[in-house]
Amino acid sequence: MESIAQNPWAALAYLVAGVCFILALRGLSSPATSQRGNRAGMIGMTIAVVTTLVTHVPRIAPPCPTGAICENYGTPVLDTLTLVELLAAIGIGAAIGIVTARRIAMTAMPQLVAAFHSLVGLAAVLVAGAAFLNPGAFGIASDGVIFLQSRIEMGLGVAIGAITFSGSVIAFLKLNGNMGGKPILLPGRHAINLGVLAAILGLIAYFTQDQSPWIFWTVTALSFAIGFLLIIPIGGADMPVVVSMLNSYSGWAAAAMGFTLHNSAMIITGALVGSSGAILSYIMCRAMNRSFLSVIAGGFGGDAGGGPSGAAAVDRPWKRGSAEDAAFLMSQAEQVIIVPGYGMAVAQAQHVLREMADKLKAHGVRVKYAIHPVAGRMPGHMNVLLAEANVPYDEVFELEDINSEFAQTDVAFVIGANDVTNPAAKTDKSSPIYGMPVLDVEKAKTVLFIKRSMGGVGYAGVDNELFYRDNTMMLLADAKKMVEEIVKSLD
Amino acid sequence: MDFISILSVFVLACFVGYYVVWSVTPALHTPLMAVTNAISSVIIVGALIAAAAGSLGGAGETSKWLGLLAVVLASINIFGGFAVTARMLAMYKKKVR
């Protein structure tokens, strides 16, 4: 089988690129080595692109003199026009990419990542389409007949790419607020989805026997449709899982194209990205105590406050505190643990929160941050927001590492989080969030809980036991305003 | 490379991916997604081949334009992905003692 990576030096270069990508992920094991890792990734990508450009210099047949027979006339010469077009295409992409990366707000990271996933998906579709139209260029056909194995790889590649594209577009629209976070439930959607999926697989199987264009393009169209159908029933709060899952798909799409092109850099990358997304989806599902299938089946969780309202909430007694009370309690404390959630990001309160922490430290208080895995709209989102506000990363702890400390803590300060602090997840078997790992904030001597009003509930639509406990003081206000007032009272 | 060699690379890379990703600290999961997104755009290799091959004439014209468009999309991702990752990673600082 004649293929493109047959030049041994090129194959070696692609392998080196693949190793660079492994090192890029390896670097992320600690913030100290992470920047070096990112550079390894850039080096790997440069190697892959340069190798391809060198081994695939665009060539063109020389102009044919009049009267000559021009079939296979002379050796092809450098096609300058195409080379310029290629470099221009890279340049345009680079400009758009760099400007976007510089301008994007950190709170908007989830939608940016979703948008980027959609581009990988669409690029995979285009490459598969190009390979289908011109298989000779990829060395996957003889006399226009595409090899059997390549047809399967191409079919799977275009299908996964198309699903990644349309799914990511929907995820982007939901995360960006262009589309409501509420799940859209079509009647009989499971039957429709399974039917479309079966049709795609059936057509790919048929494609191995018959390489007619209509089959290829129908597979593409159906895959676009299923990506759309799969994501619309999933609620806004489940987006961390969806974004991770699409991350995984974009990897598998790259791997499938790597098989078609016999390119080790693409295969290694695809496998890395595919497993990375799959692991992140698993971590997110575990943190919500939900099975992956139930997330994919959809229908759960609109945006915060979208669920059934906790009617019982109104009658029970609870304590209300002021900013001065909160400032006094915290300034007297030995240790304060701050529990941020998505609400903090929405209120853009991270900077003033760090200011509060600085003031507290000046009072001799030890300040730590506790992050639940699903705080935010994508894995690790809260950590980035805190880092942006100059919170040192060694003050920020994961659930398992800090949960035992709440019992020795004077004040737990909950800002913008709700369900992840609900003790009912540990005790109440009838609660929809029963079994979900939660932060043990109620074990702290005092819990300060910032919330806009007593009416709303978290995305799971359940009332939080924490509000009515003796050691809880509710601070009812906009998160940012409340923290600003606390900062003033601390002076 | 025959199919089995390619498959071996793929399967082994899946295992490498599994272990490497579990060792990533949860605090860096967002940069992880941004950087995986950038590297999955290595699909640009296929796009470049399609775009460069088209000029040898014949059926390649459409294929070439699909390839060029894919080059643009993948470059957005590559440059955007690495740049935004670098921007995030630069924000993670240790406590000043």
TrEMBL record, chain A:
Key words, A-Z: Cell inner membrane, Cell membrane, Membrane, NAD, NADP, Oxidoreductase, Translocase, Transmembrane, Transmembrane helix
Listed GO MF terms: NADP binding; oxidoreductase activity; proton-translocating NAD(P)+ transhydrogenase activity
Pfam families given in the database record: PNTB
Keyword Transferase: no
EC number: 7.1.1.1
InterPro entries documented for this protein: DHS-like_NAD/FAD-binding_dom, NADH_DH_b, PNTB-like
Assembly notes: Complex of an alpha and a beta chain; in Rhodospirillum, the alpha chain seems to be made of two subunits.
Compartments reported by the entry: Cell inner membrane
Enzyme class: translocase
Function: The transhydrogenation between NADH and NADP is coupled to respiration and ATP hydrolysis and functions as a proton pump across the membrane.
Coiled-coil stretches: none
Catalysed reaction equations from the record: NAD(+) + NADPH + H(+)(in) = NADH + NADP(+) + H(+)(out)
Main location: membrane
Full protein name: NAD(P) transhydrogenase subunit beta
Domain NADP transhydrogenase beta-like: 12-488
Organism: Sphingomonas trueperi
UniProt membrane topology term: Multi-pass membrane protein
Entry GO CC: plasma membrane
Family of the protein in this entry: Belongs to the PNT beta subunit family.
Transmembrane segment boundaries: 12-28, 40-61, 81-100, 112-134, 154-175, 191-208, 214-234, 241-259, 265-285
Key word Translocase present: yes
Automatic annotation (TrEMBL), chain B:
Cellular component GO terms held in the UniProt record: plasma membrane
Protein name: proton-translocating NAD(P)(+) transhydrogenase
Protein location: Cell inner membrane
GO MF term list: NADP binding; oxidoreductase activity; proton-translocating NAD(P)+ transhydrogenase activity
Role according to the record: The transhydrogenation between NADH and NADP is coupled to respiration and ATP hydrolysis and functions as a proton pump across the membrane.
Primary site of residence: membrane
InterPro entries for this protein: NADP_transhyd_a_C (IPR024605)
Keyword line: Cell inner membrane, Cell membrane, Membrane, NAD, NADP, Oxidoreductase, Translocase, Transmembrane, Transmembrane helix
Species whose genome carries this gene: Sphingomonas trueperi
Signal peptide positions (record): none
Example GO biological process: NADPH regeneration
Location of the NAD(P) transhydrogenase alpha subunit C-terminal domain: 7-94
Bilayer topology: Multi-pass membrane protein
Catalytic activity: NAD(+) + NADPH + H(+)(in) = NADH + NADP(+) + H(+)(out)
TM stretches of this protein: 6-25, 32-53, 65-90
EC number: 7.1.1.1
Source superkingdom: Bacteria
